[in-house]
Amino acid sequence: MAYSEFSLRDTLDRFGLALIDTPDLFGDVPERQPSDLLTAILKEFLPLALAINTEKARSELVIAPLFAGLRKQLDHRFSIFSGIDFSVDATRGLAGYCDFILSRSPEQQFLESPVAVIAEAKNDNLKAGLGQCVAAMVAARLFNSNEGSPELPVFGAVTSGSLWRFMKLGQAEVRLDQREYHIRELPKLVGILSHMVGIDQG
Hints:
There is one protein chain. The protein is an alpha+beta fold. It has one domain (about 5-195). It has helices at about 10-15, 35-50, 55-75, 130-145, 185-195; strands spanning about 20, 80-85, 95-105, 115-120, 155-160, 165-170, 175, 180. Strands 1, 2, 3, 4, 5, 6, 7 and 8 form an eight-stranded mixed beta sheet that branches. Strand 6 (about 165-170) and strand 7 (about 175) form a beta hairpin. Helix 1 packs parallel to helix 4 and helix 2 runs antiparallel to helix 3. The chain is globular and about 45 Å long. The N and C termini lie far apart (about 40 Å). About 40% of the residues are buried.
């Protein structure tokens, strides 16, 4: 079984997790103004991605540039991996490829713990990606534990590029933000993503 085969119900049942719908999960996270580069990238690429309107276009023209622009804005203090094999425990179905993985380590040549964010790209139906994302979040927690970083939180995002839905993995529950964020709320998105990779200031 691979991450992409998990429904949300399958994931919760298999790993003994409760789903907690949480109003405004990141309501207390402050906005962070995007850099001029990040603003310019999205101004140029977002209309093109929406016109093409495929999952691949949104991933390549919105999500990847957003993460790359944020990495530059935050002085390369976290790393980004796209489409890599993240097989952690195949016997439990924790195997396969993730659209995006963000690590709190700045090392970019290979994935190091602590993995902070698992992000899955979906064209329109964000709900369809929740199970896949949660399964990969469970794998990230196991990966971090195996690498000596067991206590740091793991976050998830399912996104179409223009819409974003966030989650946080606890010991026995997944907190799902009831809010959907639109790319027009860019300062809030930049604030949330900075918080997820452990950079709240500076």
